[in-house]
Every structure is written in C-alpha cells, then in structure tokens.
Design a protein that fits this description.
By secondary structure, this protein is mainly alpha-helical. The chain contains 7 helices and no strands.
C-alpha cells in the first residue's frame, strides 16, 4: 500500500508539473504575440518586488543581501539588470491575462473565493476565521484578481491547440 501511495503521489506531481509547463508555454506564446508599451516606472517597480522577494528568500536561508552579493559577485545594479527581462515578461503576461479577464467577462465567485481561503487556512494550519481576520480589502481584492487570472489561463489553455 505504501508503495502504491508513493507511486500515486509521484504520478500526481508529474501530472501537475506537466500541466503547469503546458500553461506556461501557452501563456508565453499569447503574451509574446501582444504588443505592449510598458512604462519604465512599472518595470522598475516589478524589479523592486523581485529584489525584495530575493532578499526574503536569502534571509530564509540565513543570508543577507550583502552576503549574497558578495558570494555571487553581483552588485545591486547588475542584479537589477539581470532581472529586467523577467520583470518585463511578468508585466506583459499579467497585462495580457488581465485583458483576457476583461474580454471573457471572467469573475470570481464567492464560492471560489471561499474555497481559496479554505486552502490557505489548511496550508498555514489556521482556522478560516483567522485567515479572514488577517485579510484587509486589498488582500481580498488581490486574491479575487489572482483567481480570475487563473481562470483566464484555463480559458487560454483550453482554447489553444498546441502546434
């Protein structure tokens, strides 16, 4: 039974990875075909977020950003330059998906929102009411937007045939 359970979990993980890889490939194709002018300020803001995320990950591993820079031989400017293409791609992808949400009139139902909150409660080992207490209007709005974006990805991947 243990062996079958492990095999089932490995199969499930591989299926999820394959689905995610397919989603990424399709969304990348759609975003690459979009012609958008992205303001520098938006790109700089995205890079700031990426730097902060990197700093948090490094702190989680016991490294400061200064130590990380020293070990990698990077400067903050070189790191930001290295992040720029990914920042542009993230912004372009998000904007395209937001347009799909608008074009397809995708909305997040209260049931979907509640289901997401329940997942979060399970993940963080908290009660649902605790999760709701910690959340402000901005966080609720952001979760609903992210759920709508996920539905947009499903619309795109469901309607695009791989060539």
């Amino acid at each position: 039974e243990y062996k079958k359970d492990i095999e089932a979990k490995i199969l499930e993980r591989k299926q999820k990875e394959a689905a995610t890889e397919n989603e990424n490939r399709v969304v990348d194709k759609v975003a690459a075909n979009a012609s958008l002018e992205i303001p520098d300020k938006m790109v700089e803001s995205q890079i700031d977020n990426m730097v902060q995320d990197t700093a948090r990950r490094m702190q989680g591993q016991g490294l400061s950003m200064d130590m990380y820079m020293k070990y990698t031989g990077m400067t903050m400017d070189s790191m930001r330059d290295q992040m720029r293409p990914q920042a542009l791609k993230r912004i372009q992808t998000r904007l395209v998906l937001e347009e799909v949400v608008k074009a397809e009139n995708i909305e997040t139902s209260e049931e979907d929102f509640e289901a997401e909150l329940k997942k979060m409660a399970e993940t963080y080992k908290m009660e649902l009411d605790q999760i709701k207490e910690f959340m402000g209007d901005y966080e609720k709005k952001q979760i609903k937007e992210d759920l709508a974006i996920q539905k947009a990805i499903e619309v795109i991947t469901g309607s695009v045939v791989e060539k």
